[in-house]
Request: fold
Amino acid sequence: MDVAIIVPLIVFASIVLIVAMPFYFRYRNRRVIYEAIKISVEKTGEADPKLIAAITHDTIGPNADLRRGILLMAFAVALGVIGFYAGGEFLDLPLWSVAFLPGLIGAAYIGLHFFVPREPTV
Reply:
């Protein structure tokens, strides 16, 4: 194989792995909890309420949108500062203009936090 093919293959494979790994680990964690409930039901005849709560517990807290928004705004500010001082360009655009995308998404998340009512978590 030519080196010109291997490098993009490695880059795209690493992107797929970065996206797929959280799904795999979440699946594995759920499977362990289900197995623990199954063993508990087989031994005692009923499920432990703590194990049931571990499955039904919503991991997205009431401040998740605010945290995501702040992180994206910080990323946008970092891109803007890098673009301002380094004068870097990305896709033939100044880097500070590329920073608008995560900045606007972060502003939307912060707006969602303050203006959209949330359901109580289980």
Remarks:
- The beta strands are 89-90, 93-94.
- DSSP finds five helices and two strands in the chain.
